[in-house]
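Co-fold these.
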Amino acid sequence: MSELRQEPITGNWVIIATERNKRPSDFPARHEERKGGACPFCKGNEKLTPPEITAYREAGTHPDEPGWWIRVVPNKFPALDNKSADLAGSELPGTLWVDSKHACTSEIRHNFYTSMNGTGAHEVIVESPEHDQSLEQHNPAQIQEIFRTWRDRHRALMARAPIRYVQIFKNVGAIAGASLEHPHSQVIATPLIPTVIENELAGARSFFVDRGTCPYCEMIAHEEAVGDRLIAGNQQFIAFCPYASRFPFEITILPRRHLADFSGLDDSMLQDLSAIVKVTMQKMTTSLSRPPYNLTLHTAPAGFTEAPYYHWHLEILPRLTIVAGFEWGTGIYINPTPPETAARYLRETAI
Amino acid sequence: MSELRQEPITGNWVIIATERNKRPSDFPARHEERKGGACPFCKGNEKLTPPEITAYREAGTHPDEPGWWIRVVPNKFPALDNKSADLAGSELPGTLWVDSKHACTSEIRHNFYTSMNGTGAHEVIVESPEHDQSLEQHNPAQIQEIFRTWRDRHRALMARAPIRYVQIFKNVGAIAGASLEHPHSQVIATPLIPTVIENELAGARSFFVDRGTCPYCEMIAHEEAVGDRLIAGNQQFIAFCPYASRFPFEITILPRRHLADFSGLDDSMLQDLSAIVKVTMQKMTTSLSRPPYNLTLHTAPAGFTEAPYYHWHLEILPRLTIVAGFEWGTGIYINPTPPETAARYLRETAI
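Predicted complex below.
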């Protein structure tokens, strides 16, 4: 079972994925699947994955058989999972205690360090039976089905103790961390609120206390007034290159309506979300010749779903630059393409 | 001139390196120098760099000519530099103001976003006239000279307004961001305290308030008591795989003596620092077959050099895994090699 460990000074958490237990000779392994091998996510190869958790499939077809258009399966090498815990630690004797805030997750406080069981979930959403169909190439109806699945898995996992956050994301291209080429998203449910989200919540709350408004609502108004970082928009969403983009061609997609919790996505929003993702991603992949990228959902953790200062949003991070010593040492990213320049290229890219 | 921009919600800063102004067709550029081209850092090619800032060189030899064993030059494409500023902004009208905290750095507060001139410095320390001699292969005297140069540049730049922090780091290997193969370190001086360092200071201060001790001093005592994450030690330094390692084979090197500011490094410490870096890096490069890595210095910013709760330290980050969507979305790193396993391999690696 994996273990969550907290860095004692900054409070940042890491997942020690003990089941992988990689040795020096196991690195590097940076390749996508062998082209010759059977793809476990393709139609007809359903037996190559663990049994499916759920699927959108044609009436009359059976689990783990063809007939599906979206399929959700457990990750074969879960970073976090819901197995029962073995809490034997290697540290000096500490106190084992159950923290009511963390429900049934046990947290161990050693005399110096803190750790927690790696309880959670790690699922894969196979976005299509077709191997070569990337997100933006689908018809709008299929993209809606993908985000509907995101929402449904989000709702299902957030309802489960001790889950406090559900991270949904996509890695595309080996450089961006994809180990399989077949289009898929991943879902990792964590028993704690991740640092990135906690920082957003804390900053947004502080803005709200100072000015009485949600900073994301303000950002939408400001971006529309300025205009030079806008990429696309429709009735319910806006896509732009953020003012402090860490990466060249970084993109944020925000719902116009104030909504902290992604689970609140309704059918009319699904339609507009799918439309703006399709157009934005088409522009991005055309302009940059199908770059590797990461796409991540940011949404409210348990307890913050009604926060008046938070908006769920999507971040699209093309992986064109390398994160190196300066970034690791400082947290300051060096971006060689001003977001105004990136947005202009994306706006002007015909699709 | 570069521009520092602040993300309005988290407060994180980025550097928009406008002089690079990369277009879509400029990506990807992930290669080290062309093997055929002349290396600007090799002995005899001194004219290929901007004029040197300083050098350790034989008596009677002249700047920008051979005879040096360490040479410091300006970065040709500085992320930050000390040119005078042109503050024309693309935002809606804002207030231009000079903040006394930031000395002569002007900060612009727009009606929504905040930015600052990219004032600072960006230097390259060429660690040897030889192209193929990596850090751990040098004799101990040369390694001392390298860290002496780090210290001297740190002292020189910290004395300059509006500098508040000096980040020294090394990128080795194209995957780790090195654009030139010839062994070198880089120095970037910033007009603000970087987030990573501010988070360490805040966490360490809070630990000190709670318990009355420096958390780094406590960590040294704890690691020595437990022992299973230790790699090497000498009279003045300790090297270990940190408890919450984000990366496989991540290494921290800490001075045993409580010292917040790297500038305080004296000659006896230089000797022990050079010895522990040599042995630790030899073990790391042998065990992992010369992996790409980043090495970063963490030290006290201006105003915190006497902090009773902070220790300067080195972090060595082998780049064997890929930072992907989950890490960007959450800040939680998935590490497939427990630090106890990594440390055992490193301890047992004969050099």
